[in-house]
Amino acid sequence: MFILEATTQLSFWGPIVFFCIGVPAALFNIIIFIGFKTFRKSPSAYYVVGQSLLDVSVLLLVLLPVISSVSTSVSSTVCKLGLFLAQVTVSGAMSFLCLTAFDRWACTSRSARIRRLNSNRIARYLGLFTFLFWSFVNIPYLIFCDLIPPTYVCFSTNDVFTKIVFYFLAPIFSTVFPLLVLIIFIVLTHRNIRLIAHIHDQQQPVRTRSSMWEQQMTRMMVAQTILSIFCTLPRAIFYTYSAITLEQNATKSFNQISIELLVDQLTISIMSINFVSSFYIYFLFSPRLRQTIKIHLKSLCHLTPNQVVPIDNSLTIAQNLPSTTPQINNETTLFIWPGLQPWGHDFEPIGNGVLQPVLTYGSSCAPNQNGIDPYQWWISAQYVNTDGNKTGFMGCFGGDVMTVNEGDTLRIEMVKLATSGTWNQTVLNLSNNKTVWFTMDLGKQAQGRQFLIAIVCINGVIVGSIFNVSLLSSSNTILLMNNSCTNCICMTILSQNTQGLNCFPNQSCLFFYNYTFLNTLEISSTSSFHFLSLPPEQETSTDESSQTTQITTATTSIIDNPWICSNMTVLQQKDMPGNDMANEQPKTYTECCIWCLSTSGCRGFVWGWPNNTSSFQQSHCWLKSILVAPTSLAQFTSVHF
């Protein structure tokens, strides 16, 4: 009797507890992975949201029988729909767990072809397919299930379908198959992660915000997958035991049946952890998720008056610089400012703009400069955002301008109002008590990083920029070198020989002596093209093989060499087999070089000559994620860091 009582209490309180714990967690998942761009940009977000929606449905369907006024025995229609929806939601939720494990395996794979499976488009298609598949598979529940007299229990009325459910649908589709899929993909993902860690130890790549977030996503999903395996395994074992001992049911004692009922209920409860645990797992394993929740809960509940401590800075004005100060291109501007900008990944919803009261000597983009002597210090409170794309927050904004004199001391304050997103900047000249200020509402944008910057800005030379593209040209003199994009632009201005350049994320630049409208701009999310003037209608270079141009610096020269590719080693008649990140045909040597430089994790490439005897290998480019000892092979060029 004690065992039966324990089983009854567990079957009553278990669904209630799981509903109270699981539904808020699932709703949190939906809000976070849909509401915040940082989270929803990952394909895993589709699987997490799909699983969370089905988790809510499962917990609700499990809770309804506990409520005395709600029962599947009310009518035949309710019986059929109840069993059908229960099977669709449980199977679908487990399938989304499997898809999450699959997505992490694809994301961490070395194969570029497999990594393409980690995409939002494929995630949408797989999510829709999963729902349609389980709806189709469980249609027999609508046909063969009904109320069975005299007790009017809702169950299958067809003996064949009952056996299919007992021996196949319930144990295989709902437990054993998902369990095997989870185990396979967690093992493969673990192998990929270990290999990536080994490669990173050898190559020490730069960790970007995107790659760090994907690593956190992987940790979250791997932890969820491991927990799901342990929660599903007891149910799979019990199903196996029940199938083996089915013929012995008639001879089982009362105590044995009672124990089996208790174990049945226990394994159901353990498996139900799959439907309530995801949010808590993500919260434990993702610092980024915890930070996001903390920030928005504080903002929602007004727990803190400011996102940052009020900033109070003082600046003392140096002697005015004479108008005869040595200048470049006849105009030089000096900037000194304390600033506040977003920190780390938190650039939503406006972008990486800066609150900055700027002390200026010269001209700038700030408004209200009419009547200001360009050869005198002046200051205004500003907000500058050249990195965002939200209307109303792009460009230079500022208040009134105040001129200052040598020896003046300025007191600068930046404070956020407690009940809104409004920031107030105030500049007080303590020498004459004059004040300028600027107020701007940044909404929910965090400004958590403080800094002090002094800059000498060369104006008078307009540099055009086209982002997310790279210029393709194999006919111009080229130099590729490791340096920041800003330094490369300055070198282009000072050289008076180069006309444009491509900037790549691995601190490399590709310089052009000249280019024309005939050259191609290729879309590339990781590079940018910068130019000093519009291209002429035709090529101006006449003898590229003998052309050599010097940039006036101590260490840099631009040399015409068609095989130069950054600081990589070029090996002719060599191949580096295997370890392909991606491959594409046709590509020129320069295009292949640019592709590698703009691809994160590329350690080198192999390029097939256009006259290669194999048409498949002609002008074919293979990017390499791992370097191996080169082997001799005619009509190939191997290039590596």
UniProtKB/TrEMBL annotation:
Listed transmembrane segments: 12-34, 46-69, 81-102, 122-144, 164-188, 221-246, 266-285, 451-472
Short name of any one Pfam family annotated for the protein: PAN_4
Cellular localisation: Cell membrane
Record keywords: Cell membrane, G-protein coupled receptor, Membrane, Receptor, Transducer, Transmembrane, Transmembrane helix
Any one Gene Ontology molecular-function term assigned to this protein's record: G protein-coupled peptide receptor activity
Domain G-protein coupled receptors family 1 profile: 25-282
Domain of life: Eukaryota
SUPFAM superfamilies: Family A G protein-coupled receptor-like
Gene Ontology process terms (BP): neuropeptide signaling pathway
Matches recorded under InterPro entries: GPCR_Rhodpsn, GPCR_Rhodpsn_7TM, Pan_app
Membrane topology: Multi-pass membrane protein
GO cellular component terms given for this protein: plasma membrane
Protein name: G-protein coupled receptors family 1 profile domain-containing protein
UniProt source species: Adineta steineri
